Amino acid sequence: MKALICQQFGSINALRLEDIPAPALTSDQVRIAVKAASINFPDALIVQGLYQVRPTLPFSPGAELAGTITELGSDVTDWEIGDRVMACIGYGAFAEQCAVTTDALVRLPSSMAFTQGAAFVLTYGTALHALKDTAQLKAGETVLILGAAGGVGLAAIEVAKKLGARVIAAASTQEKIDLCRCVGADDVINYSKEDIKDRVKTLSNNRGVDVVCDPVGGDCSETALRCLAWRGRFLVVGFASGIIPKIPLNLTLLKERQILGVYWGDAVKRDPLNHQANMQLLTTWFEQGHIKPVVNEEIGLDQAAAAIERIANRKVKGKVVVSLQR
Description:
Layout: E1 2-5, E2 16-19, E3 29-39, H1 41-48, E4 64-72, E5 84-88, E6 97-101, E7 105-107, H2 114-117, H3 121-134, E8 142-145, H4 151-162, E9 166-171, H5 174-183, E10 187-190, H6 196-203, E11 209-214, H7 220-226, E12 228-236, H8 250-254, E13 258-261, H9 264-270, H10 272-287, E14 295-299, H11 304-312, E15 319-323
Parallel strand pairs: 8-9, 8-11, 9-10, 11-12, 12-13, 14-15
Antiparallel strand pairs: 1-2, 3-4, 3-6, 3-15, 4-5, 5-7
Helix pairs in contact: 1-11, 3-4, 3-10, 9-10
GO molecular function: oxidoreductase activity
Protein name: NADPH2:quinone reductase
Organism: Paralcaligenes ureilyticus
């Protein structure tokens, strides 16, 4: 089978498309014919050896996939050959076949295309866990989302709106701002031209926001923390900027603000029942038309390395999906 392979940690440009044997199947796994797999920022980190998970070399990157089950492990009873599924597996998705444990599987709704399924589990799972489980977002509250035109950012806009919140989306270009509006943001901030703190003051009538969702890190984090109202919650989702900010802790004391880490991958392992409930809620919302992945680009497997490089440099809007049906 063909797969995008990382032979050593380092340059993304060193990734190569190779022919390798299909993965062996254990008793608790299913074999999936991969129809689509999406690119996420952690794919760039894992290839460079900068992620919290370091796979055994060589390996194929790619965290999210959608496809059909072609073979069952001997202990698998709840799934059938031909079932349409999606999954977040950490790495290994940029390949024609994957062996996946059943606890990672989510049924693909009949109305959801494979390209949408490949762009669904990680981003929407992260957004819902961050806003519902971690921040305990309430209807009527206001959320400021940084990096709002990225995969998690766009999902967070839709999830926050479905939870009844007002959304202020912050992004770095007019094109990205326009996309955020199309997805449902109530207000927008172009932080390449506007001061985030001043705009939040104006938009909130000097009150501040209740929640900040930050998948970016870098220079904007401290400014966004200062935008929180009394007992506001700051969600640390990731560091797409490549910079982990150092925050003065007195900023939390002044208004009893909270800084909350969001580690969706570990939360799934610690509370699989809640993860399953979240996935059921999200697929229901999709079927009802309340949320829809923004697939901005569809590419072939031979173009995946270049796309990972672009997402590392924050030159991607929405989701880039690798199609293995082309």
